[in-house]
Design goal:
Blueprint lengths: L8 E2 L5 E2 L21 H9 L3 H19 L10 H21 L1
Antiparallel strand pairs: 1-2
């Protein structure tokens, strides 16, 4: 008995890769039977991806963000005094934190 034709599914980049039917259940491999719609569901689904697919998803999102934002904003510039002030504030907060313990 021949196996049914399985329609190709797009990946995170929108590319279509042909899939073969599984000989046991006639389902495409891999088969994901869920939809994600909230940010928490998307984050959970992304965590479950293997590293190669996480990288593919990252590249897809980066391309989408670049396309929607136009040009990258210029880097912010800070004076040495601002940076030293932030460091001093951070160190003072750490001293207070350690004293309260």
């Amino acid at each position: 008995m021949p196996y049914p034709e399985v329609p190709p599914a797009p990946n995170a980049s929108g590319l279509v890769r042909p899939q073969k039917a599984n000989q046991l259940n006639h389902a495409p491999e891999p088969c994901y039977a869920f939809q994600v719609s909230t940010l928490a569901e998307i984050e959970s689904a992304a965590d479950a991806l293997p590293p190669e697919q996480k990288q593919e998803l990252f590249l897809f999102l980066a391309a989408r963000l670049r396309g929607g934002a136009g040009q990258v904003p210029p880097p912010r510039e800070f004076t040495q005094e601002q940076i030293e002030g932030w460091i001093a504030d951070d160190e003072a907060e750490m001293r207070r934190f350690r004293e309260e313990r």
